[in-house]
Amino acid sequence: MVQIALGSNILGANELLARKNRKLFEQDGTLVINLMSSPGAGKTTILERSLEEITGKLKIGVIEGDLYTDQDAQRIGKKGVEVVQINTEGTCHLDAGMVNKALERLPASDYQLVFIENVGNLVCPAEFDLGEDFRVVVFSVAEGNDKLLKYPLIFREARVILLNKIDLLAYTDFSLEKFQADLAQINPSAIVFLVSGRTGEGVKAWTEWLLEEVSKKQNRF
Amino acid sequence: MHEVTLIEGVMNTVRASALEHDIVRITRVKLVIGKLSMALPDSLQFAFQVLGEQDDLFRGAQLEIEEQEIQCRCSDCQQEFVVDKDYRFVCNFCNGVNVEIIRGRELYIDHYEGDKN
User: Fold this and answer.
1) Which of A54, A131, A208, B63 is 20 to 30 A from B11 (CA-CA)?
2) Domain A12-220 belongs to what topology?
3) What's the domain count of chain B?
């Protein structure tokens, strides 16, 4: 019997590719966002609303992750931006390799802002660095307060949380105070925007913040 | 569900190393998994069993998983503390929120054992 010490990171291969992606994004100062949420939280609707606010102001590309369909890519394509579809064929998350491949069809240098819409899932996507600048989690009041503590990693690692479906606040037991108190423990520096994909409320505040981030990155490179 | 992907990664890494060391049969693999990682030990075991059965190198091998507590260091007062299931990333000593996670996100292969031909 032989024992071999390894100490090697299981996600090492992904992290290598994520670094490669990040380097590509830095060449031309492209701001890249990894958009994550559970299924049905409203990622695509919020993305549509955000694009309505900012298309025409800058060059935007979208990478759409989905298990099997291109339904979301079709919706986003109607907003006048370039979209590339990744079908993960059953895999529950995007990884850096898939994004790297998508970049062959959507060269990052052509865009100032790239959204990567991840597969709807609060668990697995959190583990995979795609090379993004930061992570945005769309979380909806319909999901209930308990999700923050049930899926701490995704909420801990988010720079921005878009609390969606606030138009439903009066019809659910969701407590905004509890949400804020939990977030103050898990991720006190997260930036929160209250939004509604249905009414469009709050989307402008978020996109204005985002546009500032785009110019900050442009100025750095 | 990404546990299958993770175990595939484990098996690829171990396979490459086994080849280098002329190891023809793996008997045990030990992983260290941080409690903040979203990988479930039971699901990792299941994936290892299922994938191992279809693989000559790994058939019958045992998977050992050591779970690593979430440990933080406060950037304000430099004290270290453990974070438990309430996921309170706030300093136990000074209530500071500039907290760095130093352990708990691990996902690595510590070592493996096997037989040479």
Assistant:
1) A131
2) Rossmann fold (3.40.50)
3) 1
